[in-house]
């Protein structure tokens, strides 16, 4: 049985969000895509950043990963800040790569890479 890849984010003993990662396969098997959400009432408290740091560490240790990445919408400043505070680095702008609320938008690719 493989270790878990999806978790609840808890605050004061209550589930307030979620975080997880999707393991890649074949030649990309050293990587995973990470995603998270947090209830808006708790934004700005560092909860998502702390969860991302913990899950990144867990994913690397338990799944022998060398790289985790996220692809947030370019206009999601809060999520970009969470990634940056957790040590993720901007790698690319994926122009016109997604549809958000009926509008075609850019996404940004961030990654946390384990040093060689």
Describe the overall structure.
- The structure is a single chain.
- The chain is globular and about 40 Å long.
- The mean pLDDT is 96.
- A hairpin with a 2-residue loop joins strand 1 and strand 2 (14-23).
- With 116 residues, the protein is of the alpha+beta class.
- The protein is built from two helices and six strands.
SS-derived structural category: alpha+beta
Low-confidence blocks of residues = none
- Tell me the fraction of residues in β-strands, as a range: 35-45%
Q: Helical element count? A: 2
Topology of helices and strands:
Blueprint: E1 6-11, E2 14-23, E3 31-38, H1 47-63, E4 67-70, H2 77-85, E5 89-100, E6 103-113
Parallel strand pairs: 3-4
Antiparallel strand pairs: 1-2, 2-3, 4-6, 5-6
Short précis:
The chain has 116 residues and is an alpha+beta fold.
Question: What labels describe this entry?
Answer:
22% helix, 2 helices, 116 residues, alpha+beta
């Amino acid at each position: 049985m493989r270790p878990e890849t999806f978790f609840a984010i808890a605050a004061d003993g209550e589930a307030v969000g979620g975080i997880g990662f999707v393991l890649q396969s074949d030649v990309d098997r050293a990587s995973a895509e990470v995603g998270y959400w947090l209830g808006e009432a708790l934004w700005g408290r560092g909860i998502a950043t702390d969860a991302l740091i913990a899950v990144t560490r867990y994913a690397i240790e338990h799944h022998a990963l060398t790289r985790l990445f996220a692809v947030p919408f370019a206009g999601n400043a809060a999520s970009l800040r969470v990634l940056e505070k957790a040590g993720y680095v901007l790698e690319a702008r994926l122009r016109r790569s997604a549809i958000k609320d009926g509008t075609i938008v850019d996404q940004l690719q961030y990654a946390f890479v384990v040093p060689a």
